[in-house]
Write a structure and sequence with these properties.
By secondary structure, the chain is α/β, with parallel strands linked by helices. Helices cover 45% and strands 11% of the residues. The chain contains 16 helices and 9 strands. A 5-stranded mixed β-sheet has the order 1-7-3-4-2. A hairpin with a 2-residue loop joins strand 5 and strand 6. The structure holds zinc ion (ZN). Zinc ion is lined by residues 355, 357-358, 360, 389-390, 392-393.
Length: 402
């Protein structure tokens, strides 16, 4: 890797607009708000120093350069030079020589000529050009340059080179994500797409914190889980068809819920032409009811990314769905999902306060009531199908949902 420093007049950037790739794969999306853009231009007009830009020489996709650091600054600059926004109405006058110039609410074109010439045309920006760098060197440089500003985990993952990064990036651009409630601010779509992928890889049963998402990116750096990717694409296609428009009923947790439910249903049912519309109507009306339910609300809000919350939400949805569409019910689910207090007292006595797996004694509140045959496989919530398991053994018993 070689670097050289240059001073570029600001207008060079306008000339080079088509030559510089502002969105190479490791870059963050544009996140600057209007006042941040205005502040940058205001600084330039007052001859205040602004940080260097890092460009990489490249010959890909028809670009000569790609931006490594300074994406937001460069976009703000381009947009201003193309008259896409104006300066703040509160911008103070700028002093050139002994004369004050009013710049408030000016676009580039509207700036007084003296200001344009003295402060824009004559301004040069320090640019560092990177040559002959490998992908790893660039990723490393990107990390270092961003050391000062805390990157969101999803942004760091997006800068990791590898197969999974590429796949998640594509999946997060699927049309389905234009229907969800949340925007792609700081890679929120990539975040949720990665969570769906991790769940897909684990048959729907997994915690999905950032730590495990990063591990998944690392595990699949050199290979792709092709079946899971293909499957996830199919589910997103179905969901895209179900939701013709953007909806308020798809926040992050709801998107995960609906993904799991659809993954489950479509694996065991052939979807008819009328399915999509019926499903949407069912989801809209039943979700409004579920959101009134204390238990559902709890799993939506507390530890929402834990395996338990995700599974419980999925089970609640699945039961509701099967109740509304009995012909789609591939399993006979017990309407009662969890053991009640009386059943727990009975199980505890019957199993003699002992974990049925490791045979250790457990305290009265230190165990889980476990379904021998999983509820999701049609296991009943009764004493014949119940047993005492210590917390450790219960967490080890990891049932895939499909
Ligand atoms: Zn045990």
């Amino acid at each position: 890797m070689e670097t050289k420093s240059e001073h570029w007049p600001l207008l060079t950037f306008k000339e080079y607009e088509k030559d510089i790739n502002p969105n190479p794969t490791y870059q963050r999306s544009a996140v600057w708000k209007p006042d941040q853009k205005q502040l940058l231009i205001d600084s330039i007009l007052r001859k205040i120093d602004i940080p260097k830009l890092y460009l990489r020489e490249t010959n890909t996709n028809g670009f000569t350069y790609e931006i490594i650091d300074g994406q937001q600054r460069m976009r703000a600059l381009w947009e201003f030079l193309l008259n896409k926004y104006s300066l703040s109405e509160e911008a103070e006058h700028v002093l050139v020589g002994d004369k004050l110039f009013d710049i408030a609410e000016c676009t580039y074109e509207q700036l007084p000529s003296k200001i344009k010439v003295e402060r824009i045309h004559k301004y040069t920006l320090d640019v560092v050009i990177i040559q002959q760098a490998t992908e790893d060197e660039i990723a490393d440089l990107f990390y270092r340059l961003n050391n000062g500003t805390p990157l969101k985990p999803a942004e760091v993952r997006n800068a990791m080179p590898g197969e999974m990064t590429e796949n998640i990036r594509l999946l997060a651009r699927h049309k389905f994500f234009s229907k969800v409630t949340f925007g792609n601010f700081r890679y929120a779509h990539d975040q949720v797409a990665a969570q769906m992928m991790l769940l897909e890889l684990n048959g729907g049963s997994s915690d999905i914190p950032d730590r495990l998402l990063s591990k998944m990116y690392a595990d699949y750096q050199k290979k792709s889980p092709k079946t899971s990717i293909e499957r996830m694409k199919q589910i997103l296609d179905i969901l895209d068809k179900v939701f013709p428009d953007k909806t308020r009923l798809l926040n992050r947790a709801q998107s995960i819920n609906i993904y799991l439910l659809m993954s489950f249903i479509s694996a065991s049912n052939k979807l008819t032409k009328t399915f999509y519309d019926e499903f949407l109507k069912w989801y809209q009306s039943s979700e409004a009811k579920r959101l009134q339910d204390t238990e559902y609300k709890l799993f939506m809000s507390s530890a929402a990314n834990s395996r338990r919350s995700i599974e419980e939400r999925f089970k609640i949805l699945l039961l509701d769905y099967f109740n509304s569409f009995p012909s789609m019910a591939t399993i006979q689910l017990d309407p009662r999902r969890i053991f009640d207090n009386n059943q727990k007292i009975q199980l505890y006595e019957r199993d003699k306060h002992t974990c049925q797996s490791c045979k250790k004694q457990v305290g009265e509140f230190d165990w889980h009531a476990d379904h021998v045959v999983a509820w999701i496989r049609g296991g009943k919530t009764n004493s014949q199908n119940g047993q005492v398991l210590c917390v450790k053994c219960n967490l080890k018993k990891k049932d895939r949902l499909w």
